[in-house]
Specification:
The chain has 793 residues and is mainly β. It has no helices and 75 strands. Among the domains are: 173 residues, no CATH class; 94 residues, no CATH class; 91 residues, Immunoglobulin-like; 87 residues, Sandwich (Immunoglobulin-like), CATH 2.60.40. The strands form eight sheets. The protein has a 41-stranded mixed beta sheet that branches. Strands 4, 5, 7, 9, 11, 12, 14, 15, 17, 19, 22, 25 and 28 form a 13-stranded parallel beta sheet that branches. Strands 61-67-66-63-64 form a five-stranded mixed beta sheet, with no helix packed on it. It is elongated, with a radius of gyration of 49 Å.
């Protein structure tokens, strides 16, 4: 290889025979023997060339480190070639005008550069080598400052870049900005790649960054000194993208990490814009060591004329700004996630999702539980089953609406991830040129179609819920798993496996099938209420196989439910005719294939015996109190009358009638007058005398009698003393009373029977004060006593 370098900072001339540049712009020839890299034009000035002759002292002020033993002075150009013996350098020049060098160049050799910030009035270049600078760069003056990185080379600036002038990156190599930079002028990436490894890599946001056509900016997560985990980038810089990057690999590339661009982005502008095509954003493959690769752009994306946006790379690009760009959005690879209804720019430019790529929708979380769902009016063109077969259009979160038209460019799929969420497609779905392309619904959530769609390919319900409220009569539907529902019109329906057809869906309604209805597995789900029910109208043959009919909802007052109306004259076929179906409300129906006009499917209501559930009785009481029998009437047929008959076990009975509509929870009371253990017999029926019976048990405890003897009385000796007493007892007992008059006479026994009243009659034959004691015993051994004094004079 023959290489010659003329370093005048006017031109950099290299003769490289047999070499191919690692990356070329499309306006350059792919291979050269003679290559000239244009630098900034200026007069030939003094060049100071490092030779490292200063030994262990590698300071820049040491004159022995420079050819001719002359240290550099202000306005010199500094060159660091591969011929130097010492490649460790240290800038110890103090800051100030006397240290303002014009340029610094590294030629075919890598150096260690430390020390004070290097003050430059022109620029910096590296040719034929990769270089890391651990000293800062201070651009002096307002002129344009060039940073030139040769083809295949890499220049890393680890420390701060400061200054006020314009900075232009030239050359096809890579410039890595890793410092916390503060420069305030415009930064232009004219050639090659600029990789950002710091959130402040592009300096102050007061000056924009322009990426010319054929050049690129890369975002890469970085690990700081002493840090364990990488930092993600948050770039607030205004950005202008003028093309598709190097060989259309992306003008803005996210090469590692989950990074964010919060500044504005303008498409289709810049000093080397080519036409008004797609400006390309690339997000590389996910699966980094610490975080998946993802780029989130929160700033507004606008455009010059009709410039559009193309997404490549298998990572995720999230757009959350209110974007206004006019051109087409092409999702060629990976995933684009929308977090704003206007994320895809103006509806004047459609969005195309290529095969293997995906578009995701997620609502906006405002905090405090408040969310804003998306309503997107963008025209959409879909191809394929999406990234990782997750759906070309995928509703990740929220109840979002796609109001723009949807064109199927190939067989496509749409997924709704969360069961609680839904996607409404309010725009017209067409099949493109062929019209016969299929659409597959995946995910456990619901997709609602409201338009009169024109595509004629098969619609496949693979999972979740597909609700059709519009008309798409020329699109046959296959329900493999999940649910087909709605009040619209669909083509011929085939249901297999674990699928379900639920006409009406969230409300009772009618689903029309323009064609045949055939099932081999799955369920027919019918919802009813007191006056109406779901139904299916079939403009074709009906064949049901291995598909049970499931009835839910409140009880109906109708005796017959028309569930499938067969418009043709042929008989319904299948094995369920005559089977019984029990609804969720407990009503029982028999399936009939001869209803309506003779070939419709009807459910004929069968009488169901009522039930009396949750039966309870007061477990024990005392005589004279009441037990409560309680329970719940369960009558599946709302027009039936409920009859309750109770034999309380003590010779008493109760008969009650409960009309339709009366409360279903009942409480019936009964008072027991005798103690004992009682078995209560219950019998309940409807007006058809269908019903059942049951028993309950209770215990009634005896209550001892009580009496009130009265206060002190007086009587003359040998006169007849009389007092009338009353026994209190809640039961129906018989009693025996014993009276001791306290005057020495024998106690008197009185057999009272069931009488509660009796009299005392006695003559006292001597004077004195006598205590009269009375004891009353009921037949169960309960005892009541009382006493009083009689004064005999």
């Amino acid at each position: 290889m023959l290489k010659f370098l003329l370093n005048t900072m006017t031109h950099s001339l290299r003769i490289q025979c047999g070499l191919q540049p690692s990356a070329t712009r499309r306006r350059k020839k792919p291979q050269q023997c003679l290559q000239t890299d244009d630098l900034e034009p200026r007069l030939l000035l003094t060049a100071r060339v490092w030779d490292g002759g200063g030994g262990a002292n590698h300071d820049w002020t040491n004159r022995f480190n420079w050819q001719g033993d002359v240290a550099p002075v202000a306005n010199d150009d500094l060159s660091f070639p591969d011929s130097a013996t010492l490649r460790i350098t240290h800038n110890n020049f103090p800051s100030g005008p006397t240290s303002n060098f014009r340029s610094i160049a590294f030629v075919d050799a890598s150096y260690v550069v430390t020390g004070n910030p290097i003050q430059l009035t022109a620029g910096i270049s590296t040719i034929g080598s990769s270089q890391q600078l651990d000293a800062g760069i201070q651009f002096v003056g307002t002129a344009t400052h060039n940073i030139v990185v040769g083809t295949g080379d890499e220049l890393t600036l680890n420390r701060a870049v400061t200054g006020t002038g314009t900075i232009v990156k030239q050359g096809f190599g890579r410039l890595v900005l890793a410092g916390t930079n503060t420069f305030s002028g415009q930064f232009t990436v004219h050639d090659g790649v600029v990789q950002l490894a710091n959130s402040s890599a592009l300096g102050s946001a007061s000056g924009q960054t322009v990426v010319d056509d054929g050049a690129a900016i890369e975002l890469a997560e970085f690990i700081g000194v002493g840090e364990e985990f990488p930092r993600t980038l948050q770039i607030a810089e205004p950005l202008v993208l003028a093309g598709g990057g190097i060989a259309n690999t992306g003008a803005l590339r996210n090469v590692s990490g989950a990074n964010r661009w919060t500044g504005t982005i303008r498409l289709g502008d810049g000093s080397f814009a080519v036409g008004v095509g797609h400006e390309i954003i690339a997000v590389d493959a996910p699966g980094g060591e610490f975080t998946p690769d993802e780029l989130t752009i929160t700033g507004t994306i606008s455009s010059n004329f009709s410039a559009g946006l193309r997404k490549i790379g298998t990572g995720r690009l999230t757009l959350s700004g209110t974007n206004t760009y006019f051109g087409e959005t092409l999702i060629q690879e990976g995933v684009v996630q929308m977090k704003n209804s206007s994320a895809l720019g103006s509806p004047t430019g459609p969005t195309k999702v290529s095969a293997g790529a995906g578009l995701e929708l997620t609502n906006i979380e405002l905090g405090g539980g408040e969310v804003i769902d998306l309503n997107v009016s963008e025209p959409l063109q879909l191809s394929g089953t999406g990234f990782g077969n997750g759906g070309a259009l995928r509703n990740l979160k929220g109840s979002n609406t796609w109001a723009g038209s949807v064109t199927l460019l190939a067989a496509s799929s749409v997924a709704v991830d969360l069961a609680a969420d839904g996607l409404t497609v309010a725009g017209l779905i067409s099949g493109g040129i062929s019209r016969s392309l299929s659409l597959t619904k995946g995910g456990v959530g619901e997709m609602l179609l409201t338009q009169n769609n024109s595509y004629t390919g098969t619609t496949v319900v693979q999972n979740g819920i597909l609700t059709v409220n519009g008309s798409q009569r020329f699109s046959p539907i296959t329900v493999n798993s999940g649910v087909l529902q709605g009040i619209g019109t669909v083509g011929a329906v085939t249901m297999l496996n674990t699928g379900a057809i639920s006409p009406g869906g969230n409300t009772i309604g009618t689903l029309t099938v323009f064609g045949d209805l055939a099932t081999d597995g799955g369920q027919i789900r019918i919802t009813q209420n007191a006056t109406s029910n779901d139904r299916i109208i079939v403009n074709g043959s009906v064949k049901l196989s291995n598909s049970p009919i499931i009835v839910s909802g409140s009880a109906t007052s109708s005796n017959r439910l028309d569930i499938i109306q067969n418009d043709l004259t042929d008989a319904v076929s299948g094995a369920t005719n005559g089977n019984l179906v029990t609804s969720s409300s407990g009503q029982v129906f028999r399936i009939s294939y001869t209803g309506g006009t003779g070939n419709d499917i009807q459910l004929v209501r069968q009488n169901v015996a009522p039930m009396f559930t949750n039966r309870l009785v007061t477990p024990e009481i005392t005589e004279g109190n009441s037990v409560i029998v309680s329970g719940t009437i369960v009558e599946p047929d709302p027009r039936d009358v409920f009859f309750m008959n109770i034999d309380w076990g003590d010779g008493q009975t109760t008969h009650r009638r409960f009309a339709p509509g009366t409360p279903r929870d009942i409480n019936l009371a009964h008072e027991y007058e005798e103690d004992g253990e009682y078995t209560i017999h219950l019998t309940w029926t409807d007006q058809s005398r269908q019903g059942n019976s049951g028993v309950l048990h209770t215990v009634v405890h005896n209550v001892a009698p009580t009496l009130e003897a009265g206060g002190t009385a007086s009587v003359r000796m040998n006169s007849l003393f009389r007092r009338r007493l009353h026994i209190a007892d809640p039961g129906r007992d018989s009693f025996v009373a014993t009276v001791d008059y306290g005057d020495g006479t024998a106690p008197e026994t009185l057999a009272l029977g069931k009488s509660r009243n009796f009299s005392l009659n006695h003559r006292f034959t001597r004077r004195g004060a006598f205590q009269v004691s009375i004891q009353v015993v009921d037949r169960d051994g309960g005892i009541g006593t009382d006493s009083f004094f009689v004064i005999v004079t």
